[in-house]
Automatic annotation (TrEMBL):
Chief subcellular location: membrane
Keyword Membrane listed: yes
Assigned protein family: Belongs to the UPF0126 family.
InterPro entries per record: Gly_transporter (IPR005115)
Membrane topology: Multi-pass membrane protein
Parts of the chain that traverse the membrane: 6-24, 31-48, 60-80, 116-137, 149-168, 174-195
UniProt source species: Stagnimonas aquatica
GO cellular component: plasma membrane
Record Pfam families: Gly_transporter (PF03458)
Protein name: Trimeric intracellular cation channel family protein
Localization (cell): Cell membrane
Keyword annotations from UniProtKB, A to Z: Cell membrane, Membrane, Transmembrane, Transmembrane helix
Domain (Glycine transporter) ranges: 7-79, 93-165
Length: 207
């Protein structure tokens, strides 16, 4: 992996850890609970991806990712004791984690020779499964399953754009940047304008 790619992954880990810590803080977990939830959010999706792709788990192969998650968690705990952290910080850090992790997962799958569909699936797993595990542990409906949330859809579209661009011969880093911006932009737009997918409802049964 390039140095730039590793730095982006570290930023994604830190951003996701902050988001996880804030979710745990809103539920008044103790410091150990906050660390667990932040860690699961930061490394959960990448761990599932690596196990499915039968490759070394990224944070075991390179402990700097775990260190980044712990450092971001500690910073959040200390900062939140002095200042109130707005809800939008949680939404923004979560969106940033989606963008960075989603494309990271797709890049890894493409690098291993998998086709575009698998790359998109791995992008979704990497980007959203940490948050899914976080929400399950916090006894919440996972964000990916909440009614109409424009969440995993942003990853699907951004990773599809990435796969399409590299298929057209665009340089990998440029295609990755376009995919990340697409995911981040779509997720933030969904938050600001409450963009939602149509909800599937069955008609009531006749009695």
């Amino acid at each position: 992996m390039s140095t730039l790619g590793q730095w982006l992954d570290l930023i994604g880990v830190a951003a996701s850890a902050v988001a996880g810590a804030l979710v745990a803080g809103r539920r008044q977990f103790d410091w150990l609970g906050v660390a667990v939830i932040a860690g699961v959010t930061a490394i959960g999706g990448g761990t599932v991806r690596d196990l499915l792709l039968d490759r070394p788990v990224f944070w075991i192969a390179n402990p700097s990712y775990l260190q980044a998650a712990l450092a971001a968690t500690a910073f959040t705990l200390l900062y939140a004791r002095r200042r109130r952290i707005p809800e939008r910080v949680l939404e923004t850090t979560d969106a940033l984690g989606l963008a960075l992790f989603g494309i990271a997962g797709a890049r890894i799958a493409v690098g291993l020779g998998h086709d575009g569909v698998i790359a998109v699936v791995m992008g979704v797993i990497t980007g959203s499964f940490g948050g899914l595990l976080r929400d399950v542990l916090c006894n919440d409906i996972p964000m990916i399953f909440r009614q109409g949330q424009f969440y995993a859809t942003a990853i699907i579209l951004g990773c599809s754009l990435y796969v399409l661009l590299i298929g057209q011969g665009l340089e990998t880093n440029l295609a990755a940047g376009a995919g990340m911006l697409a995911i981040l932009g779509l997720r933030i737009a969904a938050i600001v304008w409450n963009l939602r997918l149509p909800v599937f409802r069955l008609p009531p049964e006749d009695r």
